[in-house]
Amino acid sequence: MIQSPYEGALKFLGIKEVPGSVANPQILAMLRLDQAWPDDDKVPWCSAFMNYVCWFCGVERSKSLRARSWLRVGRPITEIDAVKGFDVVILSRGGGVQPGADVINAPGHVGFFSAMDRDKIVLLGGNQNDTVKFSDYTISRVLGIRRLS
């Protein structure tokens, strides 16, 4: 039995986009859980992955393909209080000046908190180099951390 969304996400490690015109059917299923329009796995799918895992585990979710939509789910916590399991990290994405956490309709990335080391935060997430894997990001990109229930 899966005890947390993080543990559920571990089951998908290594799933990746299919090169060319064919889409990975598992990623397409994630994308279409809440949206009917995605036709392939080239659509940003980090939030779709998170929604799929949370749906599978029976916990609250954003029901949106927007990464920043996760800023409205759960309750806010600090980086110091973040733990593996039910904590979701929302990041800014792109160069230059980025809007703050109050802007949902902007580029972002989302994943499950895995670890923190000085100026880096490690996430378990989808669409990290087109794959479900662990990746590290600078802490300065963190828009928020949310605890799911």
Fold and architecture overview:
The protein has a 6-stranded antiparallel sheet. 17% of the residues lie in helices and 28% in strands. The model has no long low-confidence stretch (mean pLDDT 94). The longest helix has 12 residues, at 46-57. It is globular and about 40 Å long. It has a single domain (5-147), classed as endopeptidase domain like (from Nostoc punctiforme) (endopeptidase fold (from Nostoc punctiforme), Alpha-Beta Complex). With 149 residues, it is α+β, with helices and mostly antiparallel strands. A hairpin with a 2-residue loop joins strand 3 and strand 4 (120-128). The chain has 3 helices and 6 strands.
Strand order in the sheet with the most strands: 1-6-2-3-4-5
Structural class call reads alpha+beta
User: Could you please say which CATH topology applies here?
Assistant: endopeptidase fold (from Nostoc punctiforme)
Count the beta strands. Answer: 6
